[in-house]
Amino acid sequence: MIDLKLARMSPREAERLAAFDRDHIWHPYAPMPAAAPAHPVVSASGVRLTLADGTELIDGMSSWWAAVHGYNHPVLNEAVTSQLGKMAHVMFGGLTHPPAVRLAERLVDLTPEPLTKVFFADSGSVTVEVAIKMALQYWRAQGRPERHRLLTVRGGYHGDTFGDMAVCDPVNGMHHMFTDVLARHLFAPPPPLGYSADPDRAYLDELAKLAAEHAHELAGIIVEPIVQGAGGMRFYAPEYLRALRELADEHGLLLILDEIATGFGRTGELWGCDHAEIAPDIMCLGKALTGGYMTMAATLCTDDVAERISSGEGGALMHGPTYMANPLAASVAAASIDLLLSRDWRDEVDTIEAILTEGLEPTREFPGVADARVLGAIGVIEAREPVDVTAVQEIAMDHGIWLRPFGKLVYTMPPYVCTEDETGHIADAMYAIAASL
Fold first, then answer.
1. Which of 193, 213, 362, 385 matches a 20 to 30 Å C-alpha distance to 250?
2. Is 291 annotated to bind ligand?
3. At what angle do helices 74-84 and 327-342 cross, to 10 degrees?
4. What is the pTM of this model?
5. What are the strands, taking DSSP E only, across 93-252?
6. Is 265 assigned to a binding site?
């Protein structure tokens, strides 16, 4: 275990590091040089990050929703170090290895029953690219290359690579400047807001009409189940997901579910699709897959999808990342899944949900707050105007919390292992932020 006191950095070295970072290193969705400083983290343990000056912050973001077990966990550390002594990496072309097989066994066992084939990728964005390729090759293999478009909904986010950007929200999303050079897909309005809201019949009729009118050119439907993440942190009712499954079946479309943010219990069910009691034809996994230790993702599909692709043009799925099924990542991913299932993760998530609900519900009364919503281990405050990221983070850090707002949203997705007290501190920080809007 790291001695957090020894991990501190001298003020002079911290300033040198910060200055070089500011002038030379790109950060996500940031200019160069950076408009705001990045805070140097020198260690992490439990649910806390330790900054260069010794400040400790509860990580309310789970490192962008991945570190569900917190940091420096002995079980996950052991999985990495044990595998490191055997083999850090080996190409997956023509070779296989025990960590990959063990992880695939777990994923096939845990995901909805029809999903039996596993393709390992090295990031969430890539696993969505693979899913899109699967859908396109599926129809090419049947002599139907004209079925090359996807139906999706506004408000979605699926990654930053070109195939992914084409199915993200084309107007209010982060990729609007690339619209003219992206593949043209079909967008329905965003699902009506509210997990418990009664289904809107007019909206369901609009979905049905779009699918029927364009079925001849559609390869499939792609959505984030129940929770639209980086596109707006919107929650929608399971009835809409069931309707998409029914439309896919009616028109012979493949249903692709992007479970990168929703998978592994984040919404209160193991998978987002479990809320609707449906199964996709293709599922994308990532983020919490390795417990936040290493980058890894997976695309799962049914026997039918795999068999048609493999019997068609090229005789193979045309993708193969260099670090596909990396043994270190596969080992820690299998250990992370075992660790999750060894605990009462549902109780952990339910407890977080209850504390966040109690803490965030009163923020609705503040004039700068448009909405507050909680589902599973996700808490969201939506402001009426875009928030000042730096100012909001200063308030959070003054409360000992790390948050990363965007747009009009101040949100948290804490590690499941947060104590009631730690979750309460997160809620208190968000309340203080809401009061300042």
1. 193
2. no
3. 150
4. 0.96
5. 115-121, 149-153, 186-188, 218-223, 227-228, 234-235
6. no
Instruction: Give the Cα separation of 274 and 256 in Å (integer).
Output: 14
> Active site residue: 59, 117, 138, 157, which one?
157
- Is 157 labeled as catalytic in the residue annotation? yes
Q: What is the pLDDT of residue 7?
A: 64
Tell me the residue length of the chain: 437
In percent, the amount of the chain with pLDDT more than 70 equals: 98
Active site residue 23: no
Q: What is the pLDDT of residue 320?
A: 95
- 203 assigned ligand-binding residue: no
Q: C-alpha angle with apex 419: 414 to 423, nearest 5 degrees?
A: 50
DSSP H stretches of helix in 343-416: 345-360, 389-398
CA 104, 301, 63: angle at the middle one, nearest 5?
Answer: 60
User: Is the CB of residue 46 less than 8 Å from the CB of residue 70?
Assistant: yes
Predicted pLDDT of residue 45: 97
Q: Which residues contact 419 (CB under 8 A, 6 or more apart)?
A: none
For residue 37, the model assigns a pLDDT of 85
Q: Which residues, at least 6 apart from 154, have a Cβ–Cβ distance to it below 8 Å? A: 169, 170, 171, 172, 187, 188, 189, 190
| 287 included as an active-site residue | yes
Catalytic residue among 71, 117, 287, 411: 287
| Active-site residue, 5 included | no
Angular region, 400: left φ>0, alpha ψ -120 to 50, beta rest: left
Instruction: Give CA–CA dist 421/48, Å, rounded.
Output: 13
Q: Which of 59, 122, 169, 258 is catalytic?
A: 258
What local confidence, expressed as pLDDT, does residue 4 receive?
45
Nearest one of 276, 242, 263 to 349, comparing CA atoms: 263
Q: Is 421 annotated as a binding residue?
A: no
Name the pairing type of β-strands 297-302 and 369-375: unpaired
Long-range contacts of 202-210 (CB under 8 A, 24+ apart): 203/240, 204/239, 204/240, 204/243, 207/240, 207/243, 207/244, 207/247, 208/243, 208/247, 210/151, 210/186
What is the token pair recorded at 107? 């994923």
Segments of the chain with pLDDT less than 70: 1-7
Helical H segments across 235-363, by residue range:
238-251, 303-310, 327-342, 345-360
